[in-house]
Design goal:
Shape: globular
Number of strands: 17
Strand order of the largest sheet: 3-5-1-9-10-7
Structural class: alpha+beta
Radius of gyration: 22 Å
Strand content: 25-35%
Oligomer: single chain
Helix content: 25-40%
Number of domains: 2
């Protein structure tokens, strides 16, 4: 089944048991020094069942219980504060002390201060704290990434069957590319690689390898809304955004609307925008174009995902997905936020 991921998309897959059987968990939370929060909700990105997905916060405390398919990340939101980097759930009782971190006058996140319970839940928090420390202490991005990759390599080597190992690797591929991902992935156990999590991780790595910054892509041709074949190659001599989307994908439709607000910037910088829809029916595609008020060039092969050559060329495994290429068809940026920032600096 096709899947669609927004920014929190980044927080995918993971845990230590490879069995597909449901596992019981209990999360006991307490919020430090804040009395104004009254309700908490829990969200995961895996198959989970909760006794109650929304609970009352009483005397700063709350409890979630339920089942998870395997250890995974859970994001805890409240009625007044958004969830931060989350908690690692395992088949255990986990006690978490939260605090509200101020990121600005109107931006606060609920973060974990301490964790009691399974080793893996503690390992997740320790890893997050280590990344934050490296980001603060090391101004050189290359050195900083070296420390982070070394930490992931060490953890995967020690715990090759851990879903947390796969999760750490997945997030770093998303954050900084595929430089060391393949060699670290190869250290995962065969059992982990055979899970759905392991298979999705491999697709992410293949995508990052195929579309690495500095890679020259091959030209391609796709039909436009009138069925006319349009070729995308270096003869255009312009910087171009390739924006992959689909009508069923909610975050894709949001990104379409956001792109309308960037049209003035793209025109000023001489950057072309091409939407590449992965819809399988023309009527659905055209209705979405009309509803989203899309005025830029739109292309579509109108084929199922498993038969679509453009998906195979770019190793697309989730959408929305966007890349920025220069006049020589060389990839300069990936991900719409990064792309817009890159264009602003042109």
């Amino acid at each position: 089944m096709k899947k669609c991921y927004a920014l929190i998309t980044a927080l995918l897959l993971v845990g230590i048991s490879i069995n597909a059987q449901s596992q019981q968990f209990r999360l006991e939370g307490e919020i430090k020094d804040v009395d104004s929060l009254t309700e908490a909700t829990i969200m995961t990105f895996e198959n989970s069942k909760f006794v109650n997905q929304q609970v009352k916060i009483i005397n700063r405390k709350f409890v979630f219980e339920g089942t998870i398919e395997h250890p995974c990340l859970a994001i805890i939101n409240t009625d007044k504060v958004r969830g931060g980097l989350g908690v690692w759930l395992t088949s255990d009782t986990i006690k978490v002390l939260f605090y509200v971190k101020e990121h600005g006058p109107a931006f606060r996140l609920l973060q974990s201060l301490s964790v009691e319970g399974s080793k893996e839940a503690k390992d997740y928090l320790a890893w997050i704290n280590s990344k934050n420390e490296w980001n603060q202490k090391e101004p050189d991005k290359i050195k900083r990434n070296m420390y982070i990759w070394k930490g992931i390599d060490d953890y995967v080597t020690t715990y090759p069957e851990s879903f947390l190992s796969a999760f750490m690797l997945s997030l770093e591929v998303e954050a900084s590319g595929s430089v060391q991902a393949r060699s670290i992935y190869n250290k995962l156990s065969p059992l982990m690689k055979a899970t759905e999590t392991g298979e999705r991780l491999l697709k992410k790595i293949e995508n990052a390898e195929t579309n690495a910054i500095g890679t020259k892509i091959s030209g391609f041709s796709l039909p436009d809304v009138n069925g006319k074949l349009v070729t995308v190659d270096s003869t255009a001599k312009t910087w171009t955004i390739l924006h992959f989307w689909d009508s069923w994908c909610g975050p894709c439709r949001v990104e379409n609307r956001n792109l309308i607000g960037h049209q003035k910037l793209l025109k000023e910088k001489g950057v072309k925008l091409i939407g590449i829809s992965l819809d399988e029916t023309k009527d659905t595609w055209l209705k979405s174009i009309e509803k989203d008020k899309i005025a830029w060039l739109e292309l579509n092969k109108l084929k199922p995902w498993n038969e679509n050559e453009i998906i195979k060329q770019f190793k697309i495994y989730s959408i929305p997905y966007s890349i920025l290429i220069d006049e020589n068809m060389v990839i300069q940026s990936i991900g719409m936020n990064n792309i817009i920032a890159k264009i602003q600096g042109l």
